[in-house]
Each structure stands twice: as C-alpha cells, then as structure tokens.
Write a structure and sequence with these properties.
Chain A: Keywords: Membrane, Transmembrane, Transmembrane helix. The complex is a heterodimer. By secondary structure, chain A is mostly helical. In chain A, about 80% of the residues lie in helices and about 0% in strands. Chain A has 2 domains: about 230 residues, no CATH class; about 210 residues, no CATH class. Chain A has 19 helices and no strands. Chain B has one domain: P-loop containing nucleotide triphosphate hydrolases (Rossmann fold, 3-Layer(aba) Sandwich). Chain B contains 7 helices and 9 strands, in the order E-E-E-H-E-E-H-E-H-H-H-E-H-E-H-E. Classes of the chains: A mainly alpha, B alpha/beta.
C-alpha cells in the first residue's frame, strides 16, 4: 500500500527494475561529458578566446566597439531567455522516457521524486555550460590584458546565473503550456520555477507524455536529417487568423501571398525575422560607414541570414515536397522564385532602410546610399544561401554511419549557412572598401566572382533536388 | 479533357534483391478505371508509384500515352494527380486557402475562384471545415480533404492508393460515384482498393496482383 511503503523506496524499486542494480547511468554519463567539455574548454576555448582578445581587443577599443558589442551580448541573453521559454512550450526540459512517464510518473509516487533526475540533468548541463562560457570569457579578458582580475569572478557568476536563468525559463515554458495546470505568467511564473519541487509536482502526465514523445521525434528527425518533420515537431500549431483568406493573384503572386498570409498567422516569425534582420542591417551600415573589425561584418551577415531564414518557411516546404505527387501548377523554379519573395522583401524593406539610417548617422548621405547597395549585394548572397539550404537534398550515407557520422551530419546541417555567411561577409567588406575608395578593381572582381559562382550553384541545387528523388 | 493511356509492360521493381513488385502488365484506356487488387505486400502501391512516375521500374516499362512515366518530366506532372500517401500540406493554411492556392497556380480565372473552391469542398462534404487548419482534422476528415485536393487540380490521370480507407459507408458510395464521374469526363483512373463494393462500383477492369512475398 502506498501509505505503508515510503515513496523513495518505491521509486528506488522502480529504478532497480528498469535500470538494474547500478541504477540510472544518466548522471555518470552527464558528469563524464561535462568533465571532458570542461577540460577541452579550459585547454582550447580559453587559449583561443584569449588570443582573440589580444589580437582584436585593441582594435575594437579603438573603433569604439566595446560598448555596442556588450550591448549586443546583453540583447542576445534576453533573446535566448525568451527563446528558451518559447521552446519550453513545445519541448520542455523535463522529458523522461515515455515508458517512465506511463509506468512510474503516473503512479502515486511523489512526482518531484520521479521527475527529479529528468529536471536536474538539463538544469546542471545549462548551469555548467553557462559557467564555462562566462568563466572562460572572463579569464580570457583578464589573460588578454583587456580588463582587471575582477572580470573572472564576474564572468563566472554571470555565466552561472545566465545558465540557471535559461534552465528556469525553459521550465517555465513547459509549465505555461502544460494542459494540467492553470497557465502562470510574469512574476507568478518566475516564482513557480524557483520552487522547483512544487513545479515538478504540478506537471501533468498528459503534458509530460506529449513532451517526451516530441523529444524522441525531434531527436529522430535530427539524426535522420528529416528537416520537414523536425520543423513540424518544433513549431507550434497555427490557430489564429483563420478568418483571413488567401486570394488569387496569379501563379506566382498567390504563392507569395501564401507566404505573407502564413506570417500574418504566425506573427512571431515575422517579429523574430525583423529582430534578427534589424541589428544585422545596422551592423552592415556600420561596416559601410566606419569599417569596424571584420567580425562585425560576419555578425551582421549572420543576422541578415538568420532573419531571412526565419521567414522563408515557404521556400523550405517547397524543397521538402520536391518529388512528391504534384498539387500546384507552374514550374518548380517559378514557385521557388515566388517563395523567395518574402525573405527578399524583409531584407529590402527593413534591412536596407536600417542600414541606410545607421550609415547615414555615422558618415552622411553618401554612406547611406552605399549601405543600401551593400544590403542589396549581401541580400543576393543570403537568398542564394537560403536556396542552398532548402534544396540541399539528403545528406550522404556516411552521415548515418559510425565513426564520423555525427560530424558529417553536423557539417551537412551547417554548410549552407557557413557558405552564405562567409561569402556575404566577403562581399560586404569589399563593397564597403569600394565605397570608401580604399579598394580598386580587385574588390570589384571579388564581388563579381562570389555572386557569379554562388547564384548558379544555388540554382543548380534546385535543379539537382528536383531530379534527385526518383530512385 | 482526354484521359491518358496507361501501359505497364512487365514492369517490376526490386531494391537490393528484395522484390517489391514482380513483373506486371496491364493497360488502362482513357476514360476507364482500373482497380489493382492483391494481398498486403503484393506491390500495389509500388505499381501506383511507377504509374505516377514517382519511381522508376528496375525492369519493364510504364508509359503514359507512349511516353515513359517520369515525375521529373513536366508532361507527366501536368497529366497525373496522385494520392499515394498523404500529400504535404501547409500547416499555416486553412482548407479553403489550400484550394485557392491550387486553383491560382493552375492559372484558372481568379474571378470565379471562390465558387470552384466551394464546389470542391462541397463535393466531398467538407465545406463546414473550410476554415480549419489541416492539423485540426480527424483522420477521416483529413482523408476527405486530401481527396478534394487531388480531385481539384486538373489531371488526365488519377492515381489513388486505397482511397476508400478511413471513409464511412456513405462516403465510400460517394467515392464510387465521383470516380465514375471523372471517368465519364474522360479521365483515366488507376487505383488500389480492398473494398469489394467500391471495386464493383468503379472498376472497368481489375488487375489481381499475386503475393510478392
């Protein structure tokens, strides 16, 4: 009877049945991973970061970049906290195995006990990760001679706090979306997360099962490179704006209208895209006006790339459905061009004005005009990168094998963005130097060659993807 | 619109030695319905995928009007409307939005789009679901939606994989009637079916596939 046998004893019995006398190995595996990561971070992360501080630090200080970079870091932390909350609504941190949910969590044993390990593993992971990033960053600033020794404890404590904050925000998202409990917002949600035992007891079995199954499907989709399933699992179901109707505007116009309607029904995507494109464009304007370190150009193009990618759902779905029985009329290329309209509009209607205003404020109207041209040039690269990502097809078979499979898969996921960001940064820096009269025909040639190579490669990716599926 | 002449000649498919479809021949004349029957694993879906040009036979041929069926060929894509597994739908579009998109991309008159969309939903009895998103449908409703999408695009050949699945008795009768209507309009229909009543109602010819295992 449950009132005779203590909860802890029943919990340990269940753990013994499922895991054997050694119990769960999750902790030992986690601690080993953290141990290895801590050593590697200390050895390589600190060394590389300190070298970066030593090499680029003086230049950044001279260019007045310290303040904006610090502000950018603070904004990133806030964005990460918000994202963690949003992610938690779909896939929270507490995701024990489905069998554990059904057989143990669903029993009368204290839920704070049965869910403790599932919560502490992600919590500790984020805590240690935050501490490592903050500690290494602070130590690198001290070691690189950029600041006094106080930066080390500040960085360490700050990193730990950010890690704990991310874990808490993630859990708060899961709690907020749990069908068993009344949603809590604002201070009530924060207070709830601080009382973790009570919070864990408040999680319902239905929500836990849903999060657990979704976590398994997300993992499966990631490791099989099933991009469509992955997006469907991560994305929240759309329910708003059903009263707005798609109207016919011709073959391509209707496809573009579809994408815009999708954004109206998921305004978070539009806002997220804008929040990424705006700082990216501001950085672009800064590069054109004041020629800060190259890292600013890289970060600026990365912002433009990520922001445009957020609103390119139509393009990705087009890539997913190549080779499936056809429902839509028109050519494959025509539809791809129409789907490119949404990210292009975001880059040109938001990115170009922001870049122009930034450059104009820093260096006058000529720089503003140059910034608009720079955004157009980078936009071509960014859009080509979106085509590469959307139409990259399947990863090589070696990505699913032992040995180098994981690194191959990671490279397959990352290469379109790496190519686009690298090429975009090259184009941006060269255009900025041209605008300043600091470069000649070589820069023109570099920009032309990058665009002349990348655009046909992206178009070729579509052609190959459209023909590759027939086995 | 004239239907497509479908001819499969000793068409077979195997993957790494596993036989998915033994050599099979049949022909479907324009404006007729051919039903494929056979036990699970006989290769019905594989044969439908060959007919739709989604995959290539490892032996034999499948032609549409004398041309090899190949989904990469625009002529095949324009001719074939296939429901072989659930189609990819947009999670952010309602049912009526999907049909509007299909309608517009096939270049139909925008002025009369709403009437066609309404008629298409009404044909399958899902008009009342027009403002739902696909994830808000039951499995049966989703199947009716997929049928309405497949029916809505212009086609000279309909390829359907067990379209009677998840339909109640009245909807199976409706399916039989609508297949016959399409055939009367000239469309060729090739479909796999396990329901004897539906087969009886729609088939001009039946192809029995032996157990491939």
């Amino acid at each position: 009877m449950s009132d005779v046998v203590p909860d802890r004893e029943r919990f340990e019995d269940a753990s013994h049945v499922l895991h054997g006398p050694a119990g769960s190995t999750a902790w030992r595996q986690l601690l080993y991973v953290l141990y290895v990561v801590a050593i590697l971070t200390g050895l390589y992360g600190f060394t590389v970061t300190r070298a970066v501080v030593e090499v680029y630090g003086p230049g950044w200080r001279a260019a007045g970049a310290t303040g904006p970079v610090a502000a950018g870091g603070a904004v990133l932390v806030v964005v990460a906290l918000v994202l963690a909350h949003l992610v938690g609504r779909r896939r929270g941190p507490v995701t024990p195995d489905p069998a554990w949910v059904d057989l143990v969590v669903a029993s009368s044993v204290d839920r704070a006990l049965t869910l403790r390990e599932s919560w502490l593993v992600p919590w500790l992971t984020l805590l240690v990760a935050g501490g490592l990033v903050g500690g290494v960053g602070g130590a690198a600033l001290v070691g690189g001679g950029a600041t006094g020794p106080l930066a080390l404890p500040v960085g360490l404590v700050g990193g730990l706090l950010v890690g704990a904050g991310l874990a808490g925000s993630w859990l708060a998202g899961q709690v907020a979306a749990d069908p068993a409990g009344a949603p809590r917002r604002g201070p009530a949600a924060v207070a709830g997360v601080l009382r973790t035992r009570a919070t864990l007891r408040g999680l319902g079995v239905e929500g836990l099962r849903a999060h657990s199954l979704r976590a398994a499907r997300i993992g499966g989709a990631t490791f099989t490179a099933d991009t469509r399933s992955l997006r469907l699992e991560v994305a929240a179901p759309v329910r708003r704006g059903r009263g707005r109707h798609l109207r016919p505007h011709g073959r391509r116009g209707t496809v573009l209208a579809r994408d815009l309607l999708g954004l109206r029904r998921q305004p978070l995507l539009a806002v997220g895209g804008a929040l990424l494109v705006a700082p990216g464009a501001a950085a672009t304007g800064w590069v054109v006006a004041a020629h800060p370190p190259v890292a600013v150009a890289v970060l600026g193009v990365l912002g433009l790339q990520l922001g445009a990618g957020v609103v390119a759902e139509g393009l990705r779905l087009h890539g997913d459905t190549l080779g499936a029985p056809r429902l839509l009329g028109g050519s494959v290329r025509g539809q791809a061009l129409a789907h490119t309209g949404t990210p292009a509009l975001l880059l040109l209607l938001l990115g170009a004005p922001v870049a122009a205003v930034t450059a104009g404020a820093l260096a006058g109207p000529v720089a503003a005009a140059g910034a608009v041209l720079a955004v157009v040039g980078v936009a071509v690269v960014v859009l080509a990168g979106l085509w590469l990502a959307s139409f990259r097809g399947q990863p090589p078979m070696s990505a699913f094998g032992a040995g180098n499979g994981a690194s191959t898969l990671l490279a397959w996921w990352a290469w379109p963005r790496v190519v686009a960001v690298t090429a975009g940064a090259v184009v941006l820096v060269r255009l900025a130097r041209l605008g300043a009269g600091e470069a000649g025909p070589l820069s023109v040639a570099v920009v032309v060659v990058v665009l002349a190579v990348l655009v046909p490669v992206a178009d070729g990716a579509l052609t190959r993807a459209a023909a590759a599926h027939r086995g | 619109m004239t239907g497509t002449l479908v001819e499969a000649l000793e068409a077979a498919k195997d993957v790494d030695g596993a036989v998915l479809l033994p050599p099979t021949s049949f022909a479907a004349q324009p404006g007729t319905c051919v039903v494929l029957r056979g036990p699970n694993g006989a290769g019905k879906t594989t044969l439908l995928r060959l007919v739709a040009g989604l995959t290539a036979p490892t032996a034999g041929t499948v032609t549409l009007d004398g041309v090899v069926a190949d989904e990469r060929d625009a002529a095949t894509r324009d001719a074939v409307a296939a429901l072989v597994g659930p189609p990819a739908t947009y999670r952010d579009l309602t049912l009526r939005d999907h049909l509007t998109l299909v309608d517009a991309t096939w270049g139909r008159d925008p002025a009369t789009c709403d009437e066609r969309v309404h008629a298409a939903l009404d044909r399958w009895g899902v008009t009342h679901l027009d403002e739902r998103f696909p994830h808000e449908l039951s499995s049966g409703q989703a199947h009716l939606f997929h049928l309405s999408l497949t029916w809505f695009r212009p086609a000279r050949l309909l390829v359907l994989d067990e379209p009677e699945q998840r339909l109640d008795d009245s909807r199976r009768l409706l399916l039989g009637r609508l297949v016959r209507e399409r055939c009367a309009e000239g469309t060729t229909v090739v479909m796999a079916c396990h329901d004897p009543a539906v087969t009886e109602a729609v088939a001009d010819a039946v192809v029995d596939l032996p157990d491939a295992t």
